[in-house]
């Protein structure tokens, strides 16, 4: 099963990359871009077949390694 | 003083800090491979600079789970002094031994240069040979040294005198211009509550030798030797 | 059945070369074999256009341990130690993907050095970008610098020096050359000569993927559009794996288990296997099924031609495999026996249990094409130019110091960890970087030099000048110059004018090497740096290495209050092909300054003697921009002003200040020592004249031409960061 | 309008980050993880109201700045 984990900077945490992209886009002439945030996406190929169990495991992976919850939120995406 | 330097795959300042510590101690520290799970009897554990596991995912994130880390955490809780320099600081935050996190530099580029630090608390085993408010010159070399913590954490750090060093002008003024990476409150290094753990982004081991231009960094190691011997 | 002409052309082989292949084999090559020939006979691997000219280089000296022909050159530095170094290009990949192109360039040159048993101690880089006005320049510069830093910083080898200049001739072809210097105990030097039939051939490092398989070979009929899509032309580097590979290799090299070792660089497994076998006159039986692979379903062709990074090929002593396996397992790297040395003299390659290639090694390597390409000498330019005086000395100096080529490159070197390993005694910004030999009072001085605008004006003189400037920089740092490596970047060798530049540059370099006792021990050639007939300026980058036997003698460029400044060397006010002419008058005309090699040697020997005597407080060579620029750099480094008192002049003052005559130094000393210097110079036949005194916080030439250090500093530091911050780094222009 | 751009290493391109994460997850005892790839996700707040035009603009942003198509693929996600 293919899963995706989205990791984004928490609200209130500085996102220098996002800010730089926003600035660069404006300088390239792309108008009307309000905010830009940059995050990570991690795609995993899991042996699991049960989506519920996969989600539990992914949640644990996020808390233990993939995300730093001091600064990041995460969101797990499983095939519907 | 018995000191050990943990070597992770990708550490690259392990030798540098061993040399600087050796100058202060009069003999070299022991080098400890990350893959072992037991520590010898130590008074000081050093997590050196470098790129443990390539800094992939987040700097320090993978190293914080290395086989040796449970022993490091246990020793830290038992009061053994722990010093994390640069990547070592990142590992300490990822391992939960120090609060906050180190984000990508605000300028987004790697920055390697001498900076000035104001000593904020000289009443600790790490800093006792400095004076309060003394300005020292030490190099930084990092891509992710932008210290962040939420407001409550930051307030607690200030209240408990846990800020060790702040980036400052040569005259001691703490200004935005003197901040190389965007760190909150110009924080360059912090202690845990008990002042038994220090994490800092600058590299004291790189200016701990007159041939390299300064010994400002040596006094950090000398302080530890003076306290722990 | 013969191979179709289209496939031959797609493999970059000429009909004559293909005919030679059929003669060697006595039959038509199969697809894998054709691929092998195509990379082995490529310009990059065979040096077919340059070989005969490279022979002109002097390569020997009593202190040279290993000259060209191995992975890197080696010189003796005393106390049982040796310095190992080489420079290499990664121009084309860096133009396509600046970050990864430059990063993998650094990775490759690091491997060339540690494959010989040396621990890398320093990296240098020579960068040439297009016009600052070109829409892609900023994007390319940002990516290249970040890529070099990204690799070197992570692996933990300091990047201590280099060059970076801009010129429209590089708009379509940037130059990205990297140099690595390593140090090895003489007894631990490892070579790449296979020996001992029956010994295992071992693959270590990262797994093989479909990276960087030659563009020219990609369109081959055997592959559908899908397999082409799967094959990235640019490799992605993994400096973390390289760090592990470095430590693992050095750990294994501490024993005597290794017979031969070579990195898998350009043309990957093919060139490393063929070159090791050929040096030892042996054959190899290779089994591709044993090659660690990152992807499924790779063909023999792909495995043989992959340029995946961070890999090495080792010939072990039979029976030592367990030792190697244990070390590589500790560092979490692959280690697999993929073949055996044989006495057959043939490369026999099996895949899926069947022989997919069977090639004689010696003929394939020995019969590699070698061309005597047509060349025409570059026409000489007028020796004198009509150089207008500047609006004011002050304005001219500020313009020069703020110009792209002369401005401070701090923005670059602060992105490089130039202090890791804690032995960088002289950081970037001076003449040569100085890196202490760990745990000793000795040091290496390192520099990278070339002035392409001189080479364009007169390749012979430009070639001489590149070598002479490297030598001069080492002298100025207080070192004894030992040897150089080079990277020769030119346009298409198939054009006689370009070939003429190449031949001229080599002649000039060789003359200078001989005159200065400064042999060439390694190097690299990069041709075809041109787009639609427009070539780069000839760019023979030179990397120089010198030895400082006593660190106490390492000099500085920083002026201090009270210093007298003495000019060593003749000042004829030569302004042809100068930066003054280009930046102030907008002209690139004229012949470059002549390099008088006898004077160069005399003046350098004299400065070295002054350093040994302990007479100098500071020392700086005079190069781009001339005397006043060099003096301003010394003043800025020491944060000390200086008043210039020119001697009686027979040339205009501005020519004296901005001319680029060669073989010159500025030295600073106490007034007593300055007198000694001038007197002994006269005795040695070396021109020397006092030109000013250090004091205050202004640089003063006359009342009207007084500039505060802070104004100078702003001018010098401002351009590059402002340029890089100006607009975003668009990847398309 | 909120848009998301996913940028991932092209198939066949080495992904050292993904490799390191996979390795670390295995070391933490998470079994049955086959491949891991890491990419970036960029979230943008656009003034556009017309999804077609937004997509065209985002495509241009990707090609000019956000992705390097030599080694990266990109995918644009707009609210349905
Ligand atoms: N310009 C040059 N000057 C001197 N030696 C050179 C030059 N170009 C190549 N060589 C030598 O030829 C050999 C092959 O070079 P190269 O193919 O670049 O090595 P590698 O396979 O390690 O990349 C090396 O020993 C190199 O030092
Ligand atoms: Mg090589």
Brief summary:
Chain A has 80 residues and is an alpha+beta fold. Chain A is built from 2 helices and 3 strands; from the N terminus they run βαβαβ. In chain B, strands 2-1-3-4-11-10-9-6-7 form a 9-stranded mixed sheet, with helices on both faces.
Q: Could you explain how this protein is built, in words?
A:
The complex is a heterotetramer, with two copies of chain A (80 residues), one copy of chain B (229 residues) and one copy of chain C (733 residues). With 80 residues, chain A is of the alpha+beta class. Chain A contains two helices and three strands, in the order βαβαβ. A three-stranded antiparallel sheet of chain A has the order 2-1-3. With 229 residues, chain B is of the alpha/beta class. Chain B has one domain: Class I glutamine amidotransferase (GATase) domain (Rossmann fold). Chain C is an alpha+beta fold and 733 residues long. The longest helix of chain C has 21 residues. Chains in contact: A-B, A-C, A-D, B-C, B-D, C-D. At the A-D interface, helix 1, strand 2 and helix 2 of A face helix 1, strand 2 and helix 2 of D. The site of magnesium ion has 4 residues of chain C, from loops. Adenosine-5'-diphosphate binds next to strand 3, strand 17 and strand 18 of chain C.
């Amino acid at each position: 099963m293919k899963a995706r984990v989205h990791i984004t900077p928490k609200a209130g945490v500085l996102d220098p990359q996002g800010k730089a992209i926003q600035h660069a886009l404006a300088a390239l002439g792309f108008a009307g871009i309000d905010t830009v945030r940059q995050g990570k996406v991690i795609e995993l190929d899991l042996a699991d077949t049960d989506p519920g169990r996969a989600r539990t495991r992914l949640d644990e992976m996020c808390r233990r390694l993939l995300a730093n919850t001091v600064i990041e939120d995460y969101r797990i995406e499983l095939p519907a | 003083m018995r000191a050990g330097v943990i070597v992770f795959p990708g550490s690259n300042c392990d030798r540098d800090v061993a040399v600087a510590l050796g100058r202060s101690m009069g003999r070299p520290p022991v080098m400890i491979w990350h893959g072992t799970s037991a520590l010898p009897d130590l008074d000081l554990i050093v997590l050196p600079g470098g790129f443990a596991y390539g800094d992939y995912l987040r700097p320090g994130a993978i190293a914080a789970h290395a086989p040796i880390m449970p022993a490091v955490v246990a020793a830290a809780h038992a009061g053994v002094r722990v010093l994390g320099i640069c990547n070592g600081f990142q590992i300490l935050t990822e391992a939960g031994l120090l609060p906050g996190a180190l984000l990508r530099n605000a300028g987004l580029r790697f920055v390697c240069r001498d900076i000035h630090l104001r000593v904020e608390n000289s009443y600790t085993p790490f800093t006792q040979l400095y004076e309060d408010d003394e300005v020292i010159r030490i190099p930084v070399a990092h891509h992710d040294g932008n210290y962040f913590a939420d407001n409550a954490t930051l307030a607690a750090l200030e209240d408990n005198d846990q800020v060790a060093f702040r980036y400052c002008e040569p005259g001691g003024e703490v200004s935005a211009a003197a901040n190389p990476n965007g760190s909150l409150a110009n924080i360059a290094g912090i202690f845990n509550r008990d002042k038994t753990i220090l994490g800092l982004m600058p590299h004291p081991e790189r200016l701990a030798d007159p041939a390299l231009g300064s010994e400002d960094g040596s006094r950090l190691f000398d302080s530890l030797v003076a306290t722990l011997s | 059945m013969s191979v179709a002409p289209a496939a031959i052309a797609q493999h970059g082989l000429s009909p004559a070369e293909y005919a030679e292949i059929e003669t060697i084999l006595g039959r038509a090559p199969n697809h894998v074999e054709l691929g092998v020939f195509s990379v082995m006979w490529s310009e990059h691997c065979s040096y077919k256009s340059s070989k005969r000219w490279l022979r002109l280089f002097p390569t020997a000296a009593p202190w040279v341990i290993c000259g060209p022909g191995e992975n890197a050159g080696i010189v003796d530095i005393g106390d049982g130690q040796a310095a190992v170094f080489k420079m290499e290009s990664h121009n084309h990949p860096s133009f396509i993907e600046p970050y990864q192109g430059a990063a993998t360039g650094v990775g490759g040159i690091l491997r060339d050095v540690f494959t010989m048993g040396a621990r890398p101690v320093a990296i240098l880089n020579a960068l040439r970008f297009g016009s600052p006005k070109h829409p892609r320049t900023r994007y390319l510069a940002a990516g290249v610098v970040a890529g070099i830093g990204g690799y070197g910083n992570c692996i933990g080898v300091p990047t201590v020096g280099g060059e970076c200049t801009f010129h429209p001739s590089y708009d379509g072809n940037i130059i990205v050359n990297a140099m690595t210097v390593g140090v090895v105990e003489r007894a631990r030097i490892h070579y790449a000569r296979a020996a001992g039939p029956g010994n295992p051939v071992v693959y270590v490092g990262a797994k093989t993927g479909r990276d960087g398989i030659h563009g020219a070979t990609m369109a081959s009929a055997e592959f559908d559009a899908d397999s082409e899509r799967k094959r990235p032309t640019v490799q992605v580097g993994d400096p973390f794996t390289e760090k592990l590979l470095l430590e693992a290799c050095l750990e294994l090299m501490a024993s005597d288990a290794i017979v031969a070792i070579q990195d898998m660089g350009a043309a990957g497994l093919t060139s490393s296997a063929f070159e090791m076998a050929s040096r030892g006159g042996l054959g190899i039986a290779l089994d591709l099924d044993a090659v660690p692979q990152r992807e499924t379903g790779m063909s023999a062709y792909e495995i043989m031609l992959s340029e995946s990074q961070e890999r090495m090929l080792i010939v072990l002593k039979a029976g030592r495999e367990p030792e190697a396996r244990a070390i590589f397992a500790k560092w979490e790297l692959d280690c697999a026996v993929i073949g055996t040395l044989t006495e057959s003299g043939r490369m026999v390659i099996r895949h899926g249990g069947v022989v997919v290639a069977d090639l004689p090694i010696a003929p394939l390597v020995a019969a590699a094409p070698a061309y005597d390409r047509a060349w025409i000498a570059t026409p000489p330019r007028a020796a004198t130019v009509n150089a207008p005086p500047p609006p004011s000395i002050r304005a001219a100096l500020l313009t020069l110091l703020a110009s792209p080529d002369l401005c401070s490159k701090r923005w670059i070197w602060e992105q490089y960890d130039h202090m890791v390993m804690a032995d960088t005694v002289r950081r970037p910004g001076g003449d040569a970087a100085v890196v202490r030999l760990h745990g000793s009072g000795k040091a290496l001085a390192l520099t990278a030099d070339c002035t392409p605008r001189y080479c364009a004006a007169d390749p012979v003189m430009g070639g001489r000048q590149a070598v002479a400037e490297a030598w001069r920089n080492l002298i100025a740092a207080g070192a004894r110059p030992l040897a150089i490596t080079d990277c020769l970047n030119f346009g298409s060798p198939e054009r006689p004018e370009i070939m003429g530049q190449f031949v001229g540059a080599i002649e000039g370099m060789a003359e200078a090497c001989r005159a200065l006792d400064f042999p060439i021990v390694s190097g690299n050639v990069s041709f075809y740096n041109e787009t639609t007939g427009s070539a780069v300026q000839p760019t023979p980058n030179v990397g120089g290495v010198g030895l400082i036997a006593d660190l106490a003698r390492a000099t500085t460029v920083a002026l201090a209050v009270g210093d007298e400044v003495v000019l060593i060397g003749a000042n004829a006010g030569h302004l042809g092909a100068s930066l003054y002419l280009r930046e102030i008058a907008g002209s690139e005309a004229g012949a470059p300054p002549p390099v008088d090699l006898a004077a160069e040697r005399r003046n350098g020997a004299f400065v070295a003697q002054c350093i040994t005597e302990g007479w100098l407080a500071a020392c700086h060579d005079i190069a781009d921009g001339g005397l006043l620029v060099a003096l301003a750099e010394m003043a800025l480094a020491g944060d000390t002003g200086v008043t210039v008192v020119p001697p009686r002049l027979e040339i205009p003052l501005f020519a004296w200040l901005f001319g680029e005559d060669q073989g010159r130094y500025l030295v600073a000393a106490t007034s007593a020592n300055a007198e000694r210097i001038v007197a002994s110079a006269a005795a040695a036949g070396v021109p020397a004249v006092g030109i000013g005194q250090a004091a205050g916080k202004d640089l003063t030439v006359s009342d009207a031409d007084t500039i505060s250090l802070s104004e100078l500093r702003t001018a010098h530091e401002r351009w590059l960061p402002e340029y890089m911050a100006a607009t975003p780094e668009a990847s398309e222009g």
